[in-house]
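Before relying on records like the one below, remember that each one covers exactly one chain. Contacts with other chains, cofactors or solvent are not represented anywhere in the record.
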Amino acid sequence: MGFHVSQEEMKERICSELVRRVRDGGEICSMLRLEYVSSDVEKAELTLKHIVQQSAANPSGKLHGGIITWLMDSTMGMLSRGYTGIGSSVTADIHVNFLKGIDVGDELFIKARITHAGRTIINICSEATVNGKLCATADAIFYKIS
């Protein structure tokens, strides 16, 4: 699988998108801030983190499953665009497996990896961990729209 951008370009694209999301993404993106941790263009990987806030908890006091899905989908989407250099992509399909509850205050790491990048379809898998323990996994298909 060949890559289309340099390591520096990939990091710059992802960090710029993170800033734009907070500035222009509305209340959800302002509240659910993702932070850049690392990326590797040769491995087609991206790791972001999120500190879980009380406002994202479900009635059981754990991070809401829909928020976990959003965080994983966002990380995989940023990887799809940052790695390929395309302007835009959308999620065509996503499957999330919830394995362990995530508490308020936890530092959640989301690692995404491209498993296949074709002309129009990108397959990505993702893992969410807290303290090195697997909490959720996801597989998604992204469609390049520009």
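The radius of gyration is 14 Å.
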